[in-house]
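Hey,

Quick one before I head out. I ran the complex with adenosine-3',5'-cyclic-monophosphate overnight. Inputs first:
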Amino acid sequence: MSSIEQTLSIIKPDAVERNLDNEIKEIFRNNGFKILKEKKIRIEKSEAEQFYKVHETKPFYNDLCSYLSSGPIVVMVLEKNNSVLDNRELMGATNPKDAAEGTIRKKYGVSIDKNSVHGSDSVENAKIEIDFFFKD
Ligand code: CMP
C-alpha cells in the first residue's frame, strides 16, 4: 500500500544553466507531484560536503561536491503517493547512459556527474534532506 510522502528534489547546475528548471518542474507536475516548497539557491562547497556526507569515502566525492556548488540549483519538496520511489523512477538511472526512455536523466542528463537531478533514495533520507534545505 502506498501513502502520501514527501521527497527532496534538486535540479542540478547543468540543468539550471541550460534554463531547464521550468521544463523539469512541469514534468514533475504532469506526473502528479505537488511542489510544496522550492527555492533557487547557490550553496558553498562545505554545504555540498555536508549534504553528500554519505558519499564521503567515494572516489567521486570531491568532484561531486565541487560540482553541486558550481552554480545555481533549484531545491524542491515534492509530494504525492509513493513519491520517493516514483521520483526515482521518473529521474531514471544515475548514469544517463543507462536511463530508460522517458526519464528526466535520459532526456537531459549529460554525464554521471551532470545528471540534471537528484532525488532522495528513501523516506528516511528524504526527511533528513528536506530538513537540510528547508528547516526554518
Ligand atoms: P545523485 O543522485 O545526486 O547522488 C550522488 C551523485 O554522485 C549521483 O547523483 C551522481 O551524479 C554522482 N556520481 C558520480 N560518480 C558516481 C558513481 N560512480 N556512482 C554513483 N554516483 C556517482
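Residues 55, 60, 64, 94, 112-113, 115, 118 surround adenosine-3',5'-cyclic-monophosphate (CB under 6 Å).

Talk tomorrow,
K.
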